[in-house]
Write a structure and sequence with these properties.
The complex is a heterodimer. By secondary structure, chain A is α/β, with parallel strands linked by helices. Chain A is built from 27 helices and 28 strands. In chain B, strands 6-1-10-9 form a four-stranded mixed sheet. In chain B, strands 2-3 form a two-stranded antiparallel sheet. A two-stranded antiparallel sheet of chain B has the order 4-5. Classes of the chains: A alpha/beta, B alpha+beta.
Chain lengths: ~725, ~250
C-alpha cells in the first residue's frame, strides 16, 4: 500500500482522536500518579496502640521530665511531662528530637575494637577480658594511677560506680568535664562552707541581673528557666542582661547593657563599690548573718569606682551606678553569671565570687527569689570498698590534672589541664583512659592539641552510644544504651532550687547489642578480680540502682521523679557559721583581674567570642537532624559556618553581608560566611558553638566550624579552671 | 491561636515539636529556607537601629488559617483540585495531600509563605522511619503541605468527646503540638468563638469587624489584606506591632 500525504494525515489525526476518546491515556496518567505516590520508599507508619511512658531526659543536665509516646514498640515522640516540677510540660528542641537519637544511624550497635585503624566487631566478654588484662598488668607494675576516667558528671549511680572502680583500683584520676558548676560549687564552698549545687529561684525574683548568662540559651535547666522567666516578667519583674552581643537572652531582657566581654567581674566589683559607698546593702543579712564584709571594701576599692570600671568595661559610669541602685533597691534581686550555656567553660572564679557577694549584699542567699545552696544527693550510701596495698598507694599519688595539688588546692577537677599533661613528656602519664558521657576531643579548647594528647594514650575506652569524635579515636567502644532504653538516676536538675531526683526508664527494649555502662563497669571490675571485683557485690546495675534509691524507688517508678517538697536550705557551715565575705581560703586566691583573650592585638585586631543556641545540642551528644534543620541562616549556609560582625567593622575590612572570608586566630583559621549584624559590639566576631563535627552522620558532620578548634585555653590563675571566653582574631576577604 | 511575642524566646521548640508530630521530612542540606519544609517557622524581626539600640523579636509563624470573607481564604480560592478547604465549623484551612497535584497556585496566593512544596521524596535514614507518627500521612514528592493546627489531634479529641456524649471540646482536650511544647508558655490555643477560652480573652476578636482584636497589644500579620486570620500576636512593643503589618524580614 502506498502511503500518501492524505492517508498519513488521516492516520495521525484519526489515531490521536481515537486515543483521546479511549480512557487509556487518562487511566495511564492516573495509574502513573498513584504508582509514583506509592513508591516503596515513602514510608507508611504502621498503626498500633498508643501508650505514654513517663521518664527523665538525660540529654543535658537540666533534668526535665518527659512523656514518651509509643505506638506499639515504636518510640514516636518525646514530649514534656505535665506536672513535672522542673518543666511542667515544656521541653526544648533537643529533648523533642529524642526519637531521632534512638533511631540514629550513628549509634554504635555492638562492641568495637580498633584493629589496624579500622573497626572490628568484638563480643562483650572478649572486649572486657582484653581491657581487664591491660588493667591487671598496670596494677602488677604498681601503676594504677595511670588510669583516668572522664565523665560529664560526678553524681548519680553510674558516676559513683566509675569513681568506686577507680578508687578500689587505685587511681585518683576521675575527671569531670569543665562547666560553671565548678566555679559555682567552689564559690558556695568558700563562702558558705557547703559542698552544694547552686540553685536559682528565678521565678520568685523581682530583678535579675545576668552577667552574660544565657537564661534562654541553655544555661542551667532550659525549660525550667524559660518558665521562670515568663512567670517573673509576667509579675512585673525585670531582667538586665550584661553582654557584648545582643543574644536571645539580651533581646528578651528588659534592659541590655553592652560591655566588653571578659570584664563582667570588673562590673560586678564596680556594683559592689557603689553599693558599699552608698550603704545600699541589706543590713539585716550583712550584719547578722555574714562575717568579714569589711574585706569587700578592699577588693572593690577605688580601682573599681564607676569611672574606672567604665574604662574597663565600656559601659557608662552613670549606667553602672544606676545598675547598682536598681539591683540593691529591688525587692528580691538575683545576680547570676557564667557566659552562654555555661557547659564547657568554668570561668574566672573571682568573677563568680564577686557576683555571689552581690547576692549576699542584697540578702538573696537561701531565700525565695535568691541563690539557693542545693545539697548534693545523699542517697548513694554504699559500704566503703576494701582497699589493697596497690590501691591505697595509687590513691596517694598526685592527680594527673593537678586538681587538689599544691598549685590548685581548691579545685576538684581540671580536665582542661589534661592535654598539657599528656603532651608534656615523651610518654603519656595516662596509660588507660575511660570516657563516658563526654566528648573531650570535641568540647575542650584547642582541639588539635587535645587530639594530639589523646593519641598518645595507649588505650582509650569509650562507653559512648554514638560514634562521636572521642569514640572515633578510641581503641575500644563499649556502647551504652541510649536513655530511652535504660534505667538510670538523674540526681539533680541543674539550677533548679530544690533537691530533685529523676528516674530514667527504659521506654523500649534495647535495639542493638549494647550494654548499660553501669553493668559494663561492674563486669570490668569482676574481670580485673581481687579487691576490685569484691567492691561490686551487686548482681546487676538495676539491682544496684534499686538498692541505692531504697524507699524512693517505688515513687520514682510510678511518677518518674521525686522532689523534696519541704526543702529548707541548710545553715552555713563555715567556721563562723555565717556567710563569709573573706576567710583564709578566699585570701589565697589572687585578686580579680580581667583575663585577656590569647593573641596579639596588632595581628589580630578583633576578638572571637562563642555563643550558644538551643537549636544545637548543648549536652555531650551531637545534634539530631531536626535541630540542624531548624538552624537560622545566620548560623549555617550550606556547609559554611557563619560569623556575626558589626557593619562598621565590616566596612573597615571591606566585607559585605554574605561574602566568604577567612577567620584566623592564633590557633588556626577557617573559611566562614560573613553576616552583618547590628546586634554585635564593634570589635567582636561571634560564632556559634556546637557545629563543625567530624563525627556523626551526614546531617551534622562537616557542617560549620568547631569554634573550639580556633580557641585557646585560658587558665584562671587561682583555681586552674578553664576560663576561655574569647580569642583574638582577624577576618580577611577570601 | 494567640502567640505572645513578649514571652517567645525564639528557641525553636515549636518548630521541632511540629516536625516530630507531623512527620515533616528533613534533608542533608536544609539551609535554603525556600526549599526547606517547616510548617512552623520562627522569624527574627529587627528594629533596624544600630548597636546598641538594636532590638530583636522572634515571631513564630504557623499557617494563619485565613477566613477571608465567608471562607474565601487566598489559597482555598485558587486550588483547582479542592485539596485545600476552609472548614466553617472549626475555622481550620485543611490540606489533603493525596488530592494535591502540585500546581503550587496556593503557594503563590499565600501571603505568609506557610505553604511548602515537596521537591524531593521524603527519605529517612535507615531505621529512623520507625519514629514516624501513624496519625499523620507521610507526604510524597510533588505536593504542597502546610500546618493544619494538628487536625489529627482535633479528630482524636472530638471522637473521644462525642463518644462520651459531649459536643463542645474543652480547651485542654485539643492542643497543637507547638502549644504543648513551648517551654516559655508563649502559645495559647483554643476556640476564638468561645468566650470561656483563654484565646478569646487574649485576642478579644470583634466579630462585626472580621475578628479585629480589641486588645491594644494584639495584631495580626498583614491585617490590611483582609485575610481575617486565626493567629493573633501580642507584643508590648510598637515597632514589633508595626513590623507585623509590613513585610516579614528574612530571619
Amino acid at each position: 500500500m502506498k502511503i500518501d500525504r492524505r492517508s498519513f494525515l488521516s492516520f495521525v489525526i484519526g489515531g490521536a482522536a481515537g486515543t483521546a476518546l479511549t480512557p487509556l491515556p487518562w487511566k495511564l496518567t492516573d495509574d502513573l500518579s498513584i504508582w509514583s505516590q506509592n513508591w516503596a520508599w515513602t514510608p507508611i507508619p504502621p498503626r498500633g496502640e498508643t501508650t505514654y511512658v513517663a521518664s527523665t531526659c538525660t540529654l543535658c543536665p537540666g533534668g526535665c521530665g518527659i512523656s514518651v509516646r509509643k505506638v506499639d514498640e515504636r518510640v514516636v515522640k518525646v514530649e514534656g511531662l505535665k506536672g513535672h516540677p522542673v518543666n511542667d510540660g515544656g521541653i526544648c528542641p533537643l529533648g523533642l528530637s529524642g526519637a531521632q537519637l534512638l533511631y540514629s544511624p550513628t549509634r554504635v550497635r555492638t562492641p568495637l575494637k580498633k584493629v589496624n585503624g579500622g573497626w572490628q566487631e568484638i563480643s562483650w566478654d572478649k572486649a572486657i577480658q582484653e581491657i581487664a588484662a591491660r588493667l591487671r598488668e598496670l596494677r602488677e607494675k604498681d601503676q594504677p594511677q595511670t588510669v583516668a576516667w572522664v565523665s560529664d558528671t560526678d553524681r548519680g549511680t553510674v558516676a559513683e560506680l566509675c569513681k568506686r572502680f577507680l578508687t578500689v583500683y587505685g587511681s585518683p584520676n576521675f575527671i569531670r568535664t569543665p562547666s560553671i558548676q565548678d566555679s559555682y560549687e567552689l564559690a558556695l564552698y568558700l563562702t558558705q562552707g557547703q559542698r552544694a549545687m547552686a540553685g536559682f529561684d528565678l521565678a520568685n525574683a523581682t530583678y535579675v541581673l545576668s552577667f552574660g548568662s544565657g537564661i534562654i540559651e541553655g544555661w542551667g535547666s532550659p525549660p525550667y528557666l524559660f518558665r521562670a522567666k515568663s512567670a517573673m516578667q509576667q509579675k512585673g519583674g525585670t531582667i538586665s542582661q550584661v553582654e557584648g552581643r545582643l543574644s536571645k537572652t539580651a533581646a528578651k531582657a528588659d534592659q541590655f547593657i553592652p560591655i566588653k566581654p571578659g570584664t563582667e567581674g570588673a562590673l560586678a566589683l564596680g556594683l559592689i563599690h557603689v553599693i558599699l559607698k552608698e550603704g545600699l546593702y541589706r543590713k539585716d543579712f550583712v550584719q547578722n548573718r555574714s562575717a568579714g564584709w569589711e574585706a569587700l571594701k578592699k577588693i572593690s576599692g577605688d580601682e573599681f569606682a564607676p569611672e574606672a570600671v567604665s574604662k574597663l568595661t565600656g559601659a557608662e559610669a552613670k549606667i553602672i551606678a544606676d545598675l547598682a541602685r536598681a539591683f540593691a533597691g529591688a525587692k528580691k534581686p538575683l545576680a547570676i553569671c557564667g557566659r552562654g550555656n555555661g557547659r564547657q567553660i568554668a570561668g574566672n572564679e573571682q568573677e563568680f565570687l564577686a557576683v555571689h557577694f552581690l547576692n549576699a549584699l542584697a540578702g538573696s542567699i537561701n531565700t525565695a527569689g535568691g541563690v539557693v545552696a542545693v545539697p548534693e544527693p545523699d542517697y548513694i550510701d554504699w559500704p566503703e570498698p576494701e582497699m589493697d596495698a596497690v590501691a591505697s598507694k595509687g590513691m596517694q599519688q598526685a592527680r594527673v590534672d593537678g586538681a587538689g595539688g599544691k598549685d590548685f588546692p581548691m579545685s576538684r577537677y581540671l580536665l582542661n589541664r589534661l592535654p598539657e599533661a599528656l603532651n608534656a613528656g615523651p610518654s603519656s602519664p595516662v596509660q588507660v583512659l575511660f570516657v563516658n558521657s563526654a566528648n573531650p576531643a570535641y568540647s575542650l579548647m584547642d582541639t588539635p592539641k587535645v587530639e594530639k594528647g589523646l593519641k598518645k594514650i595507649p588505650l582509650v575506652v569509650s562507653f559512648s552510644a554514638f560514634m562521636d569524635e572521642t569514640a572515633a579515636m578510641a581503641h575500644y567502644i563499649l556502647p551504652n544504651h541510649v536513655y530511652l532504653e535504660r534505667f538510670e538516676d538523674v540526681p539533680a536538675a541543674q539550677s533548679f532550687p530544690r533537691p530533685i531526683i529523676g528516674l530514667v526508664k527504659p521506654v523500649t527494649r534495647p535495639l542493638f547489642n549494647t550494654r548499660h555502662t553501669g553493668d559494663a563497669v561492674m563486669q570490668l571490675a569482676k574481670a580485673v578480680g581481687g579487691n576490685v571485683a569484691a567492691a561490686f557485690g551487686w548482681a546487676s546495675y538495676e539491682a544496684c540502682l534499686q538498692e541505692s534509691l531504697g524507699d524512693k524507688w517505688d515513687a520514682l517508678k510510678e511518677e518518674g521523679y521525686w522532689v523534696e517538697s519541704k526543702f529548707v536550705p541548710a545553715a552555713f557551715e563555715t567556721k563562723s557559721k555565717k556567710f563569709e565575705f573573706s576567710n583564709a581560703d578566699i585570701a589565697q586566691l589572687p585578686a580579680y583581674a580581667a583575663l585577656k583573650a590569647p593573641g596579639d592585638d596588632k595581628a589580630f585586631p578583633l576578638t572571637l567570642i562563642p555563643y550558644d543556641t538551643l537549636r544545637l545540642s548543648s549536652g555531650t551528644g551531637g545534634s539530631p537532624p531536626f535541630l540542624v534543620k531548624s538552624l537560622e541562616e545566620t548560623i549555617l549556609q550550606k556547609n559554611d559556618g557563619c560569623v556575626e560582625i558589626n557593619p562598621a567593622d565590616a566596612q573597615k575590612l571591606g566585607l559585605a553581608d554574605g561574602v566568604d572570608a577567612v577567620l584566623s586566630t592564633p590557633k588556626g583559621s577557617a573559611r566562614v560566611k560573613v553576616i552583618l549584624s547590628e546586634g554585635i559590639m564593634p570589635g567582636l566576631v561571634a560564632m556559634v558553638r556546637g557545629l563543625g563535627h567530624t563525627a556523626y552522620d551526614r546531617f551534622l558532620a562537616g557542617k560549620g566550624i568547631n569554634i573550639n578548634s580556633l580557641m585557646g585555653s585560658v587558665e584562671d590563675p587561682g583555681t586552674g579552671f578553664e576560663a576561655a571566653w574569647g580569642i583574638r582574631a582577624q577576618l580577611t576577604k577570601a | 491561636m494567640v502567640i505572645d511575642l513578649d514571652k517567645c524566646t525564639g528557641c525553636g521548640a515549636c518548630m521541632v515539636a511540629c516536625m516530630a508530630e507531623n512527620n515533616v521530612p528533613f534533608r542533608e542540606d536544609d539551609t535554603d529556607k525556600l526549599l526547606s519544609i517547616s510548617w512552623m517557622r520562627v522569624y527574627r524581626l529587627k528594629n533596624g537601629k544600630p548597636f546598641p539600640q538594636a532590638e530583636e523579636c522572634f515571631l513564630p509563624r504557623p499557617c494563619q488559617h485565613c477566613e477571608g470573607h465567608h471562607g474565601h481564604s487566598p489559597c482555598v480560592s485558587v486550588c483547582p483540585a479542592t485539596a485545600t478547604d476552609y472548614d466553617m465549623r472549626t475555622g481550620i484551612v485543611s490540606q489533603i495531600p493525596t488530592r494535591c497535584f502540585g500546581c503550587r497556585y496556593c503557594m503563590a496566593a499565600c501571603p505568609y509563605h506557610v505553604r511548602q512544596f515537596n521537591w524531593w521524596d521524603p527519605l529517612w535514614p535507615d531505621g529512623m522511619e520507625r519514629s514516624l507518627n501513624p496519625d499523620v500521612s507521610v507526604r510524597m514528592r510533588g505536593i504542597v503541605e502546610k500546618c493544619n493546627f494538628c487536625y489529627h489531634r482535633y479528630q482524636r479529641a472530638f471522637d473521644k468527646i462525642y463518644a462520651e456524649g459531649g459536643r463542645d471540646l474543652p480547651e485542654k482536650e485539643y492542643q497543637t503540638a507547638c502549644t504543648q511544647a513551648c517551654p516559655a508558655g508563649a502559645i495559647t490555643f483554643g476556640d476564638l468563638n468561645n468566650p470561656a477560652h483563654t484565646v478569646y480573652k487574649l485576642a478579644q476578636p470583634d466579630v462585626a469587624h472580621e475578628g479585629q482584636s480589641r486588645n491594644p497589644k494584639a495584631f495580626r500579620l498583614l491585617e490590611r489584606l483582609g485575610t481575617n486570620t486565626k493567629v493573633y500576636y501580642l507584643s508590648s512593643k510598637e515597632w514589633v506591632r508595626k513590623a507585623g503589618d509590613t513585610a516579614v524580614q528574612k530571619a
